[in-house]
TrEMBL record:
Family to which this protein belongs: Belongs to the ABC transporter superfamily.
Record domain ABC transporter: where: 1-238
GO biological process: L-amino acid transport
UniProt keyword annotations, A-Z: Amino-acid transport, ATP-binding, Nucleotide-binding, Transport
Organism the protein comes from: Roseomonas acroporae
Gene3D superfamilies in alphabetical order: P-loop containing nucleotide triphosphate hydrolases (3.40.50.300)
Lineage: Bacteria, Pseudomonadati, Pseudomonadota, Alphaproteobacteria, Acetobacterales
GO molecular function: ATP binding; ATP hydrolysis activity; branched-chain amino acid transmembrane transporter activity
PANTHER family in alphabetical order: HIGH-AFFINITY BRANCHED-CHAIN AMINO ACID TRANSPORT ATP-BINDING PROTEIN LIVF (PTHR43820:SF4)
Protein name, UniProt field: ABC transporter ATP-binding protein
Amino acid sequence: MLVEGVDAGYGAVRALDGVSLAVAPGETVALLGTNGNGKTTLMRCILGLLRPTRGRIAATIDGVTTELVGRSPEEIVDLGIAIVPEGRRLFPRLSVEENLLLGAYRRSARAAIPRNLEFCYDAFPRLKERRGQAVGSMSGGEQQMVALGRAVMCAPRLLLVDEPSVGLAPILVARTVEKIAELKERLGLTVLMAEQNFHQAIRIADRGYVLVHGRVEFRGDSPAELGDSELVRKFYLGL
Ligand code: ATP
C-alpha cells in the first residue's frame, strides 16, 4: 500500500495535508495520532469512501498494483482490502453469525463463506458458542471480535483497523491487539492500524507514523524509534 502526497478534507476543513506513507506486504504499520488528527480520514480515502483532492493511493496485492483513487468502495473491497471501522458499526439486533455473514456480501467473498466462517469460529471460539446471540447484548470486547471476524469474512489481504481500543477496558484492548497479530500471522495479512493507544499499538507494529493536524510529523522505523521520539514522548506519553 502506497499513499503519496494525499490531501483530503470536508468542505473548508483540510483533514489531510500531503500525507505519504507505505506499508509493505506482510507488515503491521501503526498510524498514531490523538483525536482529530486525520487517521480515520486516511482510512476513508484508502477505502474509497472519501476522494482525496490530491495525491495517489495504490495497493499492491499478490504482486498486482492497483490505483485506488476514483474506485468505489465495492471495487476496493473486491481487491482484498477490508476495514474494521472505529466504533465497530455492527448491527446490534442481528446475531453474531448474521453480522459475520454481512462481511461476505460481495460476490467475490460469497463462494468462500463456509471456509471463512469456519476460520472465524476457529479463531474466535467464543463467537461460535454465541453464534445465535444478538450482538447488542454482548460485551465490548466480544463485539470487537465480531467486527474483526466480519472483516475476515471478505478474505482480505490488507486489513485496515481503525482505533480498535475505543471504548474497551485495558485488558480487552490488549486481547484485541493480540488477536489482530494472530489473524495477521494465520492469514498472512498486511495490517494498517490507526490507534491512539501508543503502548498497545507498538506491541504488534513493525513500525509506524505519527499524524499531527493531518500531516505525517514522524516516521519511526521500529517500535523503539517511535518510543524514543520527542514527538511521541511529548504528545502521547506526557513526558
Ligand atoms: P478520531 O479518532 O476522532 O476519529 P482521527 O485522527 O481519525 O480522529 P479524523 O476523524 O480523520 O481524525 O478527523 C480529522 C479532521 O477532520 C478533524 O479536524 C475533524 O474534525 C475533521 N472531520 C472529520 N470528519 C468530518 C466531517 N464529516 N465533516 C467535517 N469535518 C470532519
